[in-house]
């Protein structure tokens, strides 16, 4: 009698564990799909500017397609406009990358920063191998766009903030 009770108990425990394992697998696959979700960065599109000395830094973002956004940054002083960088925010092999090409840096070659976090109004990208910055972040709050670059250069931590506002140029 005890053997039957023990066998039934073990079978019941096995079924419960099997069901629990299925639930865990379903949950993990759902999380995996959510982690691969194509984030919309449309909140980034538009023209943004911030005062810098005697001029303005202007950053302009455009939607290209579901996996690519293009940005450009330039400095405007009176009637002179100097291009600073072109930027691509694109999805490659299932991951989003922030890819700036800065004039006069990195042999004018693009540098990939992997997007580690993204929401409907913010993202953080990182490349720990890059000299400076190692981390780039953007966050939109209303009509403002807050961008920052940070990291360690020559053994010292540094961070630069850019508090953009909307505006045409």
Explain what the structure shows.
- This protein is of the alpha+beta class.
- The protein has 2 domains: 1-37; 42-166, Calycin beta-barrel core domain (Lipocalin).
- Helices cover 20% and strands 52% of the residues.
- It is built from 1 helix and 10 strands.
- It has one helix at residues 2-35, and strands spanning 46-52, 55-65, 68-77, 80-92, 95-102, 113-118, 122-126, 135-141, 144-153, 156-166.
- Strands 1-2-3-4-5-6-7-8-9-10 form a 10-stranded antiparallel beta barrel.
- The longest helix is centred in the first third of the chain and has 34 residues, at 2-35.
- The radius of gyration is 24 Å and the shape is elongated.
- The N and C termini lie far apart (86 Å).
Instruction: Calculate the terminal CA-CA distance, rounded to whole Å.
Output: 86 Å
Number of domains: 2
In spatial order, strands of the major sheet run 1-2-3-4-5-6-7-8-9-10
Regions with little confidence, pLDDT below 50 for 5+ residues: 20-36
Q: What Rg is obtained from the alpha carbons, in whole angstroms?
A: 24 Å
> How confident is the prediction overall: mean pLDDT?
85
Helical residues, percent: 10-25%
| Number of beta strands | 10
H/E series: HEEEEEEEEEE
Q: What spatial form do the alpha-carbon principal axes imply?
A: elongated
Strand percentage, roughly?
Answer: over 45%
The CATH architecture of the largest domain can be given as: Beta Barrel
Number of helices, where a helix is a run of at least 4 consecutive DSSP H or I residues: 1
Main beta-sheet strand count, sense and barrel state:
10 strands, antiparallel, barrel
Structural class of the helices, strands and pairings? Answer: alpha+beta
**The CATH fourth-level homologous superfamily of the largest domain:** Calycin beta-barrel core domain
CATH fold call of the largest domain:
Lipocalin
